[in-house]
Specification:
Keywords: Coiled coil. This protein is mainly α and 199 residues long. The chain has a two-stranded antiparallel ribbon with strand order 1-2. The chain is rod-shaped and about 125 Å long. The two termini are 44 Å apart.
Length: 199
């Protein structure tokens, strides 16, 4: 009875650990998805930044060329154009700096997501190790309980033939009033299943 209760408790613990492991796997998948999305967004921002920089250089060159031409004909217009040019340059610089800041923030976010993912993977590995340890513990306790039951059986029935008692094994089951190997029974069932399907 105690062995059954212990086995039942350990089985519930294993089920609980498996559920926790499943939750961790879902969290890892979510973090990987967020990491992929953040990486794609960062790549787009970098491309936009490069495009903006190229556009700024092109506009600057065009304005400089226009200013040279206007300098010859319109001195007053030149001052106005220079001010506009300076304003546009400052605006572009501000925009580029803002995009760089955003890029840096996305890089930090991606790095943090990677660290979180690694931490979750380590936690999942720990849960798996705990789960395996629980399974091994359950197997050991099951075997210990079986051995204890056989020893008690020998004490309660000391007159029984020792050869018959020695046939009792944890890997056997009762089938048709006889002790048969569980392994052989499983092999014969799996071998007969395809032939039955063929019929």
């Amino acid at each position: 009875m105690l062995t059954h209760l212990l086995a039942d408790r350990q089985e519930r613990e294993v089920i609980s650990e498996r559920a926790r492991a499943d939750r961790v796997e879902k969290i890892v998948a979510d973090v990987e998805s967020r990491y992929t999305n953040a990486k794609a967004k960062l790549q787009k921002e970098i491309e936009d930044l490069q495009s903006s920089r190229d556009e700024a250089v092109k506009l600057g060159k065009e304005k400089e060329d226009a200013m040279v031409q206007l300098k010859v004909t319109h001195t007053g217009e030149l001052d106005r154009m220079k001010k506009t040019h300076d304003f546009d340059q400052a605006l572009w610089r501000k925009r580029i700096n803002g995009e760089r800041t955003l890029r840096d923030a996305l890089i930090v976010s991606c790095a943090q997501a990677g660290q979180d993912m690694m931490a979750l993977q380590e936690y999942a590995d720990e849960l798996e190790a705990t789960n395996n340890a629980l399974k091994e513990g359950m197997s050991d306790k099951y075997l210990d309980g079986f051995t204890l039951a056989v020893e008690q059986f020998r004490v309660v029935f000391p007159d029984l033939d020792p050869e018959l008692v020695s046939q009792i094994d944890v890997m056997k089951k009762v089938d048709g009033g006889k002790l048969v190997s569980r392994v052989m029974s499983a092999v014969s069932h799996s071998a007969s299943a395809p032939s039955e399907a063929a019929v």
